[in-house]
Amino acid sequence: MSFYRKVFVATLMLVFVTSAFAQSGTNSPYSQYGLGQLTDQSSGFNRGMNGLALGFREHNQVNYLNPASYSSIDSITFIFDVGLSAQLTNFHEGNKKINARNGDFEYVVAGFRAFKHVGVSFGVLPFTNVGYNYAISDYLDDTRSTTYTNTYSGSGGIHELFLGAGWEPFKGFSIGANIGYLWGDITRSVINSYSDSYVNTLSKYYKSETHNYKLDFGLQYSLNLNKKNNVTIGLTYGLGHKLATNPECLVISNNPSTSVADTTSFSVKNGYEIPTTIGAGLVWIYKDRWKVGADFNYQKWGSVKFPIYNVVNDVPSYELSDNYYKDRYKFTVGGEFCNNEYGRKFLDRVHVRLGASYVTPYYKVNGYDGPSEFSISAGFGIPIVNAYNNKSILNISGQWVHASANNMLTENTFRINVGITFNERWFMKWKFE
Asked: Which site from 90, 99, 193, 240 is most exposed, i.e. has the minimal number of CB atoms within 10 Å?
């Protein structure tokens, strides 16, 4: 496929992903905090290893978590990767349990070799997700004459449209960068109502709209130790900065008996920010069959502020707080086995993957640390073979995520991820020939 044809195809895909991308969802009450639930942004082949990525250099997969890896994409390959997921979550607090289901359209990415030693990728990914709706009711005081109900709901999220390139200036060493555009709306509400019609209801509505950039850099160094062993080191850096978002808070106090409402609006200029991020990963490859590695990611949320509504001495305010976030750490280990990627036997070409992660919280709830997460995953990369194609891959994985914090809600999520990676031959057959 010529360079100009690749650019033409990339333009068509760019139009497709920006118009067809649907927001990923969540039912987690924890998504009401901060910017929402942070996504791991991994693709189909990474998810079988629980997001392990920073040291991987794949010739037939797009590894956008480290843009330096784009330089390893085959010159005869045009990659188009789309991902879906379905999940079942169990929420447990005290003696109460409830289940919730979600089905999400996760990501669309593409990649190709633009020039010798230069690979290019683009796509659309979720960055954060917000989605919850629940209520808490109890008696207002010991007289049990009046009950109150607090209703919490929220929706939205932030998405990322990115374009990246990776270059290998000399053998074994690659650098790369992703330039992203962040956009999305987040709405939240807290409504306090009472059974006594003489008690004022209080409603708080939060709204924000984000449009800004995101910039990430990557580096990889691959070293052949001998004929059987190879080691690749990967490093990433994400630029932290303010998002030029002006979040708003609308507070409405309503008297049900008189229908008189008192409305107060607040706004914080430049109230959202993303942190500086640093990642390091290592992958060991044995006989081109075994790939085992570990990743470490650090997000400097502790230096980021977040707007909080508060009432002190009957005076309400909506101001930035520097004690809301905390630094976030993620540790991941995993790997895959493929007996012979180019073998004649079907089972020899199947990739078997495993992974596990531990993630610390990035925010506080009423001064206490939010939930930490432990997760494990297993998956397969299954070659798609037919009369037109023998290079495409179906990536299927299952993941279990446990999120919990002291004296807070416990979540257990089982997620099925499906990613389909189409190669140039499949694409050319249906689009150009």
From this structure: 99
Q: What is the DSSP string of 307-319?
A: EEEEEETTEEEEE
- Cβ 162 vs Cβ 122: under 8 Å: yes
| 272-305 residue pLDDT tens | 999 999 999 999 999 999 999 999 999 999 999 9
Q: Measure the CA–CA gap between 242 and 227, rounded to whole angstroms.
A: 48
Q: Which residues of 11-45 are buried (b: 16+ CB within 10 A; e: fewer)?
A: eebbeebeeebebbbbbbbbbbbbbbbbbbbbbbb
Comparing 8 with 103, the larger pLDDT belongs to: 103
Q: Which two tokens stand for residue 381?
A: 């990369």
- pLDDT level of residue 423 (50, 70, 90 thresholds): confident
Judged against a pLDDT cut of 70, whether residue 399 lies above it is answered with yes
Contact 29, 134 (CB under 8 A): yes
Q: Is 105 helix (H, G, I), strand (E, B) or coil?
A: strand
Residues in CB range of 187: below 8 A, 6 or more apart: 154, 155, 156, 205, 206, 207
CA separation for the pair 421, 67 (Å, rounded): 18
Is 333:294 a contact under the CB 8 Å cutoff? yes
Q: How confident is the model at residue 382 (pLDDT cuts 50, 70, 90)?
A: very high
